[in-house]
């Protein structure tokens, strides 16, 4: 699963627990979380999940922030994880001779300057290229993209759920 929470509340004000209860409701074992607005990086147990997170430096204004929440019963499968910055992190799991790496992303909005977008996609490219080829790769997150409603041109590529009248963005 994947969810943009727009602020998760590092102060443990209950929003984090509500989000984890929602993940339980939908029976999600792994979920990418974007826009946590948490500082630093680390891991914290919330409900039935271990949440690995990557955010801004302590002295910076809160923005962005990504996390991967994994059900407690699967934490023993986690082999490594790496916070990259406030927009990208990854977590690897192995079980029964299968390795999977989950990448959690939060792309700059379409209104962001081109330099910020280029930096994000270059970093994501470096991260993806650094994942061992034998791993299954799952990239999850909020790419802040709009796909428009041109279903006929993109038949077989996009579904019929584009926003009518919405322009496709360059994200």
Automatic annotation (TrEMBL):
Coiled-coil regions in this chain?
A: none
Q: What InterPro entries does the record tag this protein with? A: Endo/exonu/phosph_ase_sf (IPR036691), Endo/exonuclease/phosphatase (IPR005135), Swc5/CFDP1/2 (IPR027124)
Q: Which Gene3D superfamilies match?
A: Endonuclease/exonuclease/phosphatase
Q: Where is the Endonuclease/exonuclease/phosphatase domain?
A: 13-146
Question: Would you say which domain of life the source belongs to?
Answer: Eukaryota
UniProt-recorded Gene Ontology molecular function terms: catalytic activity
Please report a single Pfam family linked to this protein.
Answer: Exo_endo_phos
Q: What protein am I looking at?
A: Endonuclease/exonuclease/phosphatase domain-containing protein
Organism of origin is Didymodactylos carnosus
